C-alpha cells in the first residue's frame, strides 16, 4: 500500500485532484490532503508518505521548503511539483535531486495521473530487491557478522556485562556501529509464513535475507545492528543519527515514526521478494543497555500476542518502569526445551509437535530409558506448558493434577500423549482468542466511525486510533467484515445523512458538515454517487414517507 499526499493552498484544486486520483485503478493507494505547507508537515511528522504532489508557491511553508523536510523524514518518497511558468527557475534546482519531477499546471490531469503512476512504478521496482536476494544466497556470513550474532545472543541471555565501559571496549573491538552510552530502540521481527516444512538452511537463508533487506532500509536514517536470535527470529537495536544530539536530546520520537513507516516498506519488500510475511514489534521508549535482556523477553512475548493472524503487523509498545523489576522467566537450559517454549509462545503448532515428538522419541521408540530421565523429560515439558499458562491465564480447565504428576498416568507413552493433547487445546484456545480480539477491535473501529462521522476518517487517522499500521488495519477489516473500510465509512455517512435530511431543521450544507463534507458541492456529489439522487431530491421524497420508514445501517455482524 502506498500513501499519496496532495498539497495545495487552493482547496478546490486539492479536493479536485484527490477525487480524480481516487477514481484511478491504483490498488492500495491511500490519498491524504493538505491545504497548506503546515498541514503537510503534520502528515509528514505523523505517518509515512510515499508520493507528494505539491504546489510550489504556497503561503508559509512552500513546496521547496517542504522538499527538504521530506528528504529528511522519508528519504524514499517521490515528489511531483505542480508549477507555473514563472516558477521554473525555482524548481530547476529542485529537480536536480533524485526522485523529484515537475509538471506545468497547464498540462492537465492525464499528465498528473501518469506522473503519479510513474512514481509508484519506481517504488515498486525499489521493493524488488533481487540484488539483495542474490547477495544472501551467494555470500558467506563473514566473521564480523557472526561475531555480532554471538555477542548479542550472549548479552540477551543476561550472561554478559552491560555496563558502559565494558560495552565500549567490546563495541570497539567487534566494530559494532552503536554507542554504549546512548539508549537504544529495539525492533523485534518474526517470519509469519514461509514454505511448508523448510529445511534449516532455507529458514536461515530467508531470515538472513529479511535482515539484509531491513538493514538496507533502516540505515537510511539510523545507526542499527540486526541479528538473528537463538529462536531464529530477528532483533534490531537502533539509535538515531541526529547530528550532535545523542542521549536524552536525540530525536527518538522522530525515529519511532520513521520505523513505523519504514517497517511497512520492509514488509512489502519481503512479500514481493520472498513471498514471506514478516511481523514487527517496536519498543517505542529508548532503553538503557542494562534493561535489554528483560525487554527482549517482553518483546518476544508481546510479538506473539496477535490480533487476527498477525501477518504484516507493525505493533508499537512501551514498557513502564514497574515492568523492569525482573525478567519474565528463567531460561531453560536444554536446547530442545527452549525451542519448545519458543514454539508455544509463538503459536507454531507444527514445530511444537515435531519438537515434542523428538523429545519423547526414546519412549515412543521403545528404547530402554531410566525412570529419572523420563521424569526429567516429562517435567521439563510440563513446566513449559505451565509457564505458558501462567503468562496467558485461562478459566478453561485445560490442566489438572495430572500435568505435574507423571505417576498419574498408566504408561510413560500415555503421559506424553496427555502433554500433546494439552498443547493442542492451548493452540486451539489461542486461535479462538486471536479471532475474538480481531472481532473486538473491528467492533471498536465501527463504533468510532459512527461517533466521528464529521471528522477525518482517513485510513491513517483510524490506524493511529486503533494502534495498528494502516495496511494491516485495512486488510484485517476486510477479512473480519467482508467489506472495505472505505465502503463501511460511506455507508455510515450515507445513513446518517439520510436521517438528517429527513428532518427539516437541517440545511443541506449543515448535513454535509455533520457527515464530514465541508463543501456542499462535495457532499452533493458524494450523496448522488452513493444513492443515485441528490440530497434535495431525497429530502423531497422523504416528506411523503411514513414517520417510521427510515432504515438504519446495520453494523457488520460480530
Automatic annotation (TrEMBL):
The keyword Membrane belongs to this UniProt entry's keyword annotation: no
Superkingdom of the source species: Bacteria
Alphabetic keyword roster: DNA-binding, Phosphoprotein, Transcription, Transcription regulation
UniProt cross-references to InterPro entries, sorted A to Z: CheY-like_superfamily, Homeodomain-like_sf, HTH_AraC, Sig_transdc_resp-reg_receiver, Tscrpt_reg_AraC-type_HTH
Domain Response regulatory: 3-120
Pfam families to which the protein is assigned, alphabetical: HTH_18, Response_reg
Positions carrying 4-aspartylphosphate: 55
Residue ranges occupied by any HTH araC/xylS-type domain in the UniProt entry: 443-541
Single GO term (MF): sequence-specific DNA binding
Gene Ontology terms describing biological process: phosphorelay signal transduction system
Name of the protein in question: Two-component system response regulator YesN
Species for this entry: Cohnella lupini
Taxon lineage: Bacteria, Bacillati, Bacillota, Bacilli, Bacillales
